[in-house]
Design brief:
Layout lengths: L7 H19 L6 H5 L7 E14 L17 E17 L2 E12 L27 E12 L4 E4 L8 E4 L2 E9 L21 H4 L14 E9 L3 E8 L18 E11 L1 H4 L1 E14 L2 H7 L11 E15 L4 E10 L13 E11 L4 E14 L2 H8 L17 E13 L2 E11 L10 E11 L1
Antiparallel strand pairs: 1-2, 1-18, 2-3, 3-4, 4-7, 5-6, 7-8, 8-9, 9-10, 10-11, 11-12, 12-13, 13-14, 14-15, 15-16, 16-17, 17-18
């Protein structure tokens, strides 16, 4: 994925600056922060900031053979870094503009390749190993109240503290990330504060529209009611797989996303179920056509034409009590066309739980355990077995088996604004290859936010 190597001097100063910055800003956090945050005050603007440092290491593991996009079977260390500001400004009643400048840097293990359910969801979509500016989000939001009961929405990243009708229509246009609004599981959706593995952060059978950094241009609409919501987005696709540029041939290249959400049981021990469907229209290759052209070492990029990729996703979250929650996901796509925007997963299932540390006197800490199993369509398997490559995986051959993993993490919160995480992932059959691995990955994570 990367053509250059990281500037280690730059990364050293980033890591050192991160530590100094967190220590300085942590002194600004008052002891009664939680009490103050519980006071509802409508806002006309807000500002948030986050920075995350995430090193990962794996030792050597057995591998009968390797290809150009294999996980390195030798020991390896990789570090990622992001810093993001979140600015929101109310421009008129119901109208808000959000702007998120971001600086990502670093890389993932083996240059972010060799595992379909990639081990670092924070770095899976970063285009440069050295610090570069990126406009992560810049969009306008308009909320149309439909009357009736109101609810107070708390201050957060990309969310002003406001009072809105429960029954409302929200319309957004601009640059954003589709997972900002879809598949938004409360227990596993943020690699900066929850599970780290991409297969637990997102439903990876949903090949959502995204540029190299993970964002797109589009429009989004959501109708919200007391116990259900329905949301739709139309977004731009990339010109090539995992590419930085958008395809402006909108008649033939666009992404349709539709999700229905049902909420039940209330806040104390309730849950949510989301059903997602999508169709991507883009200049994508076809696995069977690639095999027809070249039965040995096929190249899917040589068969690109405007076509469709479609799939379904199911997302579930359940609050057992104030400290314990459970989650699960199922995902499937047709698996005939190129893995294009996210990773090489055609079907997936995940299950897990998150427990807060109230029982041992640390209510802001949490421990999480999750499991994922992912697979490929039969023609996708045949393509890789013949020596083909996707943009993220390819061992030059394939002894197929589903990719399986578990992740266990502990998040320690010395104060509310700082989180320190120790994380372990065990991955069986990396890149669906049973003659490679298993591999164990140890991660540390330092996260600061205001």
């Amino acid at each position: 994925m990367y053509s250059s190597k990281p500037n280690h001097r730059v990364m050293f100063f980033l890591r050192t600056g991160f530590i100094i910055f967190c220590c300085f800003l942590s002194r600004l956090v008052s002891a009664d922060e939680m009490t103050n945050s519980e006071i509802f005050v409508p806002q006309t603007w807000n500002f948030h900031f986050q920075t995350t440092l995430l090193p990962q290491y794996h030792g050597s593991f057995p591998a009968v053979y390797s290809g150009k996009l294999s996980l390195n079977p030798g020991s390896e260390l990789a570090t990622s870094f992001t810093a993001t500001a979140f600015l929101g400004v109310k421009v008129w009643d119901g109208g808000i503009v959000y702007y998120d400048p971001e600086i990502p840097a670093g890389t993932g293990l083996s240059g972010v390749s060799g595992i379909a359910d990639f081990s670092n969801g924070e770095i899976s979509k970063v285009g440069s190993v050295n610090p570069t500016y990126n406009t992560a989000r810049l969009y306008a939001q308009q909320v149309f109240g439909l009357g009736g009961e109101q609810e107070k929405i708390d201050d957060d990243q990309n969310q002003l503290s406001v009072s809105e009708d429960v029954s409302r229509l929200t319309v957004i246009a601009g640059k954003f990330s589709l997972p900002d609004f879809f598949d938004n599981n409360a227990f596993t959706h943020d690699a900066r504060t929850q599970f780290i593995n991409l297969g637990l952060v997102d439903n990876l059978a949903w090949d959502y529209a995204a540029d190299t950094h993970g964002y797109t241009l589009g429009v989004y609409a959501e109708l919200n009611q007391n116990d259900w919501s329905i949301r739709f987005a139309e977004a731009l696709m990339s010109t090539v797989a995992n590419g930085p540029d958008y395809d402006w041939n909108i008649a033939q290249a666009h992404a349709d996303n539709l999700e229905a959400e049902w909420r039940y049981g209330g806040d104390a021990n309730g849950g949510k179920i989301r059903l997602l469907g999508y169709i991507n229209h883009a200049d994508m290759g076809n696995y069977q056509n690639a095999l027809n052209v070249s039965p040995v070492n096929p190249d899917i990029t040589q068969t690109r034409t405007y076509t469709e990729k479609y799939g379904l996703g199911l997302d579930w979250e359940q609050t057992a009590n104030t400290d314990l929650g459970f989650f699960g996901r199922l995902g499937w796509n047709n698996g005939a066309t190129e893995s294009f925007e996210l990773t090489a997963v055609d079907e997936t299932a995940s299950l897990g739980t998150v427990l807060k540390g109230t029982g041992w006197g640390r209510g802001d800490d949490q421990v999480g355990l999750g499991f994922v199993i992912s697979g490929l369509s039969s023609v996708h398997q045949a393509y890789l077995s013949a020596g083909g490559y996707d943009f993220i995986i390819g061992d030059g051959a394939l002894s197929y088996a589903p990719e399986q993993l578990f992740e266990l993490y502990y998040l320690y919160k010395p104060i509310k604004s700082i989180g320190l995480t120790l994380d372990f992932q065990g991955i069986e059959n990396p890149a669906y290859n049973q003659v490679r691995g298993p591999v164990g990955i140890v991660s540390g994570r330092a996260h600061f936010e205001i």
